Amino acid sequence: MMVTAAGTPASGADFDLSRQDGWIVVSVGGELNLHTSPGLDDHLAQAGRSPASPPQVAIDLSRLRFCDSSGINALVRAHKRISAADGRLVLLRPAPRIADLLDRMGLTRHLDVRGALPVQAAPA
């Protein structure tokens, strides 16, 4: 089941927050840069206030066209915040250009980058 709440568009970027299969999914479209990365921080803060504990957050990068160092820093901050809460963060479906950027920066060794949401084990 997917429930979507549209985010406030920032100049050059748009964000959506939804729930899917036990995950909070933040979708990012457009450009993630100095001016738009605070919007990602805001949406991730909303995701962090979820009653789910520990938080399971996915950032869908499939519509992201550009990411500068400010955007990369926002992703790293999200990873640190969610990990500190014993949660899990995955980056979903980055476009080839973004996937290459993450790889060249060495972030794929530290961040979980996937083509789809991980399947959750059924409760025992």
TrEMBL record:
The cross-references to Pfam families, in alphabetical order and at most eight, read:
STAS (PF01740)
Which stretches make up the STAS domain? 13-124
Gene3D superfamilies on file? STAS domain
Signal sequence coordinates = none
In the record, the note on similarity to other proteins reads: Belongs to the anti-sigma-factor antagonist family.
Instruction: Spell out the NCBIfam families in the cross-references.
Output: ant_ant_sig
What's the protein name? Anti-sigma factor antagonist
Instruction: Provide the species name.
Output: Actinomadura yumaensis
